[in-house]
Amino acid sequence: MKHKTVYLDMDGTLADFASAATALVGFSGAEFKDLAILSPAQKQQQKILFDAIDNNPEFFKNEQPYFYSREMYDMCREVFDEVIILSNYRAPKGRHNLFNKVREYKTNWVHQYLDDRLPKSKIIITESPKYNFSDLGRWLIDDMPQNVSKWVYHGGEGIVFDNWDNVKQKILQLGGKQK
Asked: 3-state class of 68 per DSSP?
């Protein structure tokens, strides 16, 4: 039995955000995953990171895929009727052209590393919260636990991406085939 739709997060799930962040500012940003418990020093570091990304939108063009990214995408295509790449980016106020540039880089990344024939309509780069796309029959795979929690709260089902082995097992349980 196929499931309806899966939305795959990009940064930290398919694309190696931590390595790209380390190359840009010298730290990975991995410590910011639980936004509810950030210390003042972590909030300052987070601001430094996101300011640097805003000033270097090529960051998203330069992220590398994880070793499993294509395998995960292909497994999801077997299990789900529809696979959509979902990523959000909020440009600083008054810099909408920056959002358009980031959307272009992220779309090109998907075409380069996952599927060069995936229609742009299946690649959603949005300034809105991801849970706006949640609904019955829709799954989210995301490395940010709060994104998955909000997704589930709004009617969808989710998998927190903690590591590839765990997520792979969950996809296999949903009907995927071992490669």
From this structure: coil
